Amino acid sequence: MRTMLNISAALLLIVLGVGAAHTSPVAILGAFDEEVVILERQLVNPRTHTIEGIQFLTGTLNGQNVVIARTGVAKVNAAMTATLVIQHFHPNQLIFTGVAGGLNPDLQIGDIVIAQKTAQHDLGRLESADIENFGVRNPINGKRNPVFFPADPELLRITEAALADIKLNPFQTPQGQRHPRIIRGIVVTGDIFVAFDAKKTALHKNLGADAVEMEGAAVAQICWQQNVPCLVIRSLSDNAGANASEDFKKYYKIAARNSAALVTRIISQLHSKQSLQQDTTINPDQTQKPPVSTQQNALSLNEQRFHEMLSDVTLTGHFTITGGEDSSTLREEKYTITKVTKLSDDYWFFFARVQYGGRDVTVPLKLEVKWADDTPIITLTDLELPELGTYTARVIIYRGQYAGTWSSDKHGGHLFGIITKNTPESDNTDSQ
What we know:
Blueprint: H1 2-16, H2 18-23, E1 26-30, H3 33-40, E2 44-51, E3 54-61, E4 64-70, H4 75-89, E5 93-102, E6 112-120, E7 124-126, E8 131-133, E9 149-150, H5 153-162, E10 171-173, E11 176-178, E12 182-189, H6 197-207, E13 211-213, H7 216-226, E14 230-238, H8 244-277, H9 301-309, E15 313-319, E16 331-342, E17 347-356, E18 359-372, E19 375-385, E20 389-398, E21 401-408, E22 412-421
Helix pairs in contact: 3-8, 4-7, 5-8
């Protein structure tokens, strides 16, 4: 009986997408091993996923779902991996961690720069000794990107809270042991390893930059265009001057560990914040409003129909379980969706009432919707539902009906039913 209840709850979550709302991870990226391995070793229930040859490691870090990957060095590699992690894991936030060269003369090797904004220092027009930097157009909306990509304000606030009790490794320099200083600043990115005093001076003078590296702004641009909150954190392994190559070899490992240590504290703060926000008896009238869509006023005809079809409705139907006992039995399911709102790209924000396992909760959630001509398809692949397992599903919504397939590690089956509009006289408080 417990197995049947778990499967029923999982199917309910699949159709409504609730699993995505509660399990969307924080993505953590670094360019090479030393920048992420300390984080990987702390994961609980790690699982490896290989996508287009790139390995992604999922699990929980200090209670928070995360996905970690090495991007490889330089902008193209970083942008490719960032795109893959956003496309396949749909993270709520993305943090890039690692080392950098110091540009600000007030900073020393070992100090950490939390990027308030990032820019590509080698993107622009070269008509003299210096580059005139500019932003290229976003191919998604045709608007010109900014030169500087701002960090997510909420991630910056959470990072400030994480600094309260942070403990970092001291640096042993020729001048003696010193403890790292942490500042907010500007990080610039380019496809060159800067080890030249004149270039270092120019970057600090022309862009106000505090640190230089080879990935951060490329990832920030991907996140900007995909509406994913982003933060870049860099620990200084060298001073980007004539001794940069030698200093990098001496200090990059401890610098990378300190950057990762700060990320670990940020993850703890994120988990604590989310735990405080969770409530198993949310009142729909008190629930936080969904994010304002950038495309609400530009819905296609199909999207308008989808919005109308899944607003204030009850889904009533059945599901089957194949590959097990009594596989021909139809099992009933019934639940409610109160409101849907279009976000960016293929994502929609749902308000759904879920009842399972003695819980009754109305939750806001983020759900991906694909299209086959005029037919919307809810698409979930290897979605991990807490305490229930990992599920894949394809659910078609069409002309007031839904149908699809689902599978897990041990079971699979079909689901189907009808979608009916709730009327003022209807009472859906007993929906299951």
